[in-house]
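I had to read the description of the data format several times before I understood it. In essence, backbone conformation is discretised, so a fold becomes a row of integers matching the chain in length. I therefore recommend that a typical entry be quoted early in the introduction. For illustration, here is how one protein appears when written out as sequence plus structure tokens.

***
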Amino acid sequence: MRNGFNVSSSGEFVNEIREDAQEAQFRYHATARFRPGRGLRAWTRPALLGRVKSARRFELDLADGWQDHQAGPQVQEHTPLDLALAAVGVCSLKTAIAGGTARGITFDTIEMVISADVLPGDEVSLSTARVRRLAYDISTRSDADAGLIEEVTRQILDRSPNHRTVKDDTELHFHNAEQELTWHLEEAPAGAPGARTVRRHVKWISGTQFESAGLDLDGCRLPLRVDEAKQFAGVDWAPNPQEYVVIALAAELAALAARKQAAATGSAGEWTVNAQGRLDLRGLMLIDPSAAVGFQTISCTVEGPAGITSAETEEYFRAAVEASALVELLALPHPVEVRLSSGEQDTAA
């Protein structure tokens, strides 16, 4: 046991996957619901971890970005983008810790500031929002020299599922009932407002437990907890990084669909989006080089408000998909700038 990670159990898990490929198939589920006057709420649903069903239920009240207009010195609700950035940052750090542990490194601390330059969408007309730059500023303190830390960190990042999801193309599907939607991503319009930078601090606590807090004065600075299921050395303290990805995507789409309906008709009804993300851990574990390390697929299914037609539900949901910053972030490859600083542990005289 080092850094709270059981290296021998990881080896046993690799052997299980080699013997039974179904053990590598992980499916994470989340639902988000926008209700007029009540805002945006999202929650996890049971995850399928190989052949094991894990009862996961965590609920989050989120900023919907247009109806709540939070006021006061301390914003109390995170945005879907906050969740997505925390998910990418934590997954990257956790993978680096696991890789360092396998190389015999003991970490005192490891933390990150993840930042994204975002072209914001218009709150009234539902214009396109886009993420234009991602950067990780990683700092560590350990018993290893700086050269080994840099080698391990840069090699291991490419085995982080969420890092690879934003770095690579990812297959996304969107449905209205049984009907799959056709969609395309729009470029941000010429003359769009200048990009703003969103920053989050990610801190390792122990083992699979992390916290992430916003650093921007106009954003939510309350910490988000992140953890793994008990089946994977966690204590069920909070959603894991992959669950945060599907929560964030479902929540943004539910809020954007409601906003589109309100822009078209003057009012919005109740919108629900169910999301599922699938990972094949054979890519992460280097068992099958043809398997993607990031999400294999992410699928979302919408439930529109009562009183509107299926065609209207499809129209508003498609508009949400095409305007979504998170759809673009997950579907298309984004370069990531990585900066690393490290220090060795103090030794007794």
Q: What stands out?
A: Residues 241-265 form the longest helix (25 residues). DSSP finds eight helices and 14 strands in the chain. Helices lie at 7-19, 80-102, 146-157, 161-167, 241-265, 281-284, 310-323, 325-331.
